[in-house]
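Cont'd.
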Amino acid sequence: MKNKLLRVLLILAILLVVIIVDFPILKDLKSNVFKKEVSAVLGLDLRGGMQVVLQAPEGYSIDQETLQVAATILENRSNALGVSEVVFQVAGDNYIVGEFPGLENISEVIGVIKQTGMLEFVDVGDNFLAPGTEIRTDYQIGGQVTPEVVTPTPAPLNVGQPEIASPQPTGSTVYHTVITGADLASVVVTPPQNPADGYAVAFTLKPEAKDTFGAFTKANVGKLLAIVLDKKIVSTPVIHQAIETGEGSISGQGENAYTFDEANNLRITLFYGTLPVALEIAESRVVGPTLGQASLQKSLFAAAIGFAIVSLFMLIYYRAPGFVAILSILFFGLITFALYLLIPVTLTLPGIAGFLLSVGSALDANILQFERIKEELRKGRTLFQAVDLGWRRAWPSIRDSNLATIITSSILFWFGSTFGATIVKGFALTLALGVAVSLFTALFVTRTLLNLGVKSLEKADKKRWFGI
Amino acid sequence: MNILGKRYLFFLFSLLLIIPGLIIIALGGLPLSIDFKGGSLVELGFAMDKAPQSSEILVIYNDNNIIDAQVQNSVDNESALAVIKSSSLSQDQYNSIIGALRSTYDANLVERRFDTVGPSISQSVTSRALMAVGIAAIAVIIYITFAFRGIAHAFRYGVCAIIAMLHDILIVISLGAIGSKLFGWQMDSLYLTALLTVIGFSTQDKIVVFDRIRENEPILRKIPFEKLVNHSIIQSLQRSINTQLMTVEFLLLALALFGGDTLREMCIILLIGLLSGTYSSIFIAAPILVVWENKEWKTWFRKTKAIQA
């Protein structure tokens, strides 16, 4: 008896939580409870947008770290464009999947991806340039550093004090590129030499660039050397001494000392400023926002009609238990949706298919129990015995069939995330979640509600209430 | 009701459904969409009075050096749709085509979809999808063997479930092939989703039916295995009909009728695929158990006439 009360309380508690999660009317309460924005994430096929799959050219093998770095660089670049919620993810051993929700301008995206990521070390003399400043250099993509071009190092306006340039293209000034990212042999982060210093980024030059860089730094000690990515200033360190061995390091001082993360970001920029691999667009999909929304609305409408018909059938065929089943399925829907919101699960068309299949197995769990209850009633057992036995007979089949589905969907999920098959992944995730929840609702909700009903229906007409 | 007595008729019936599809595939290959073989798909919406003819679209494609384009026209919500499939378009080609269509026909045309898939990615996804399904099948056999360890020949139940699952996959593939001939269907990523759904449902349903045999075996040990299985099938028949026909199929039917064009093809495949999942539990998986128990293959070639009679 105590057990039963506990179950009812548990069910009510869960109901309260999922209602808070599910309904947007309770938005304030929701954000208070969960301390974060909880709302449905729609996939590109439902909200419209663009998806690209990038791939290294045939014959290249790349390791996971390289891919990860490339994805990070691409994401940073895209975010710099002001496109919101862009995500680049490594998928499988060879792909990067980029998603641009709601994006309309396709060529802009292609531009970002095709950008080469040119890294240059630029002679700016005493001219301090703030990060983000666009500049012009004498190095052209695909070309060489051309020493015969005269280096128009601008005359410092205020000697000794670095001038802060406004973050706009600095007009006609063309700076000289000393070396490029292609001249770097290796870049590592080094820990502070004494606790007051920050981390530093140590680099080694390729032999052919050693002399150029040595001669330049020797002549320019105390001046500034700008690190420039895609013609934009990344940082402007000071040359402390001549670097003739081809090995140098970049460090900040005092307040500007680097933390490990800052140093590491700089390392990634230096070494991978150029994307670590040339990436090709293996696949691209653009879904217009109208198509996605129309199919979402229609599907929801259709699902509502379908559910109404199913409810009607359950009521007519199973009577009182049928009503329990409807409550149980509604409960199932609320919990599942709450999980989608909390995890969060990106809802796509395949995801909805997975959800529908799990609705089917939730219904099946109810039907399995009711059929057994009917059988036991026909054998002349009392209602109390029939409900109890019906449950015990149905449980092994509910358990084993659902566990097998969970096993299948876990394997599909693993496959989908390892090999970048996003469709399979979305399907498997909603199916596995749905089946797990349906096991829960079968175990707790249907059974508890049936047990509650047993008392009041013990003397009722079995023909009318149970459809026998 | 003796279902198992007619088991070879059911096998024959399934073969009659599967073989036409396999013949179509043998002759013309799988009707793969660009998702699996690479290429471009463009979907455009025009105002009714400004829509170009298919041939006019093809001319514009030809101007951009694409000679293998195919156009399908349809109507949706008062706009004329054109779905154009071709070999891969570059971004420049796409822009140029859209520009030409805008200036010549409808300045306000809607770009509903533009998919481009390279051939290498599609191949690797397909082969790995097959691998995943294979691994899942082995896992299911192991699980069923474990779950049925209390009764004789537990391993057989797993294998029969997988054979019946393969049957369902073949039915869906055959359906896709027949659909491609009749309605121009293509096997795309939604088709793959439908296939996965059928696979998931198939094993689930087999286990429910096998569960009855598992439950009855210790009680009805004295009667022949064939009768035991037949009895178990009939006991679970009402549940199969209710779960399958009355609920799942209703949901899908509603989606197929009201769910919009994107989902219709997928829903029809699901309708038939899931029906096959239920059918094969009763008429394929359980009968094969009996065939295995009786080792009937020993008599297949000696007494062929006796079985047909």
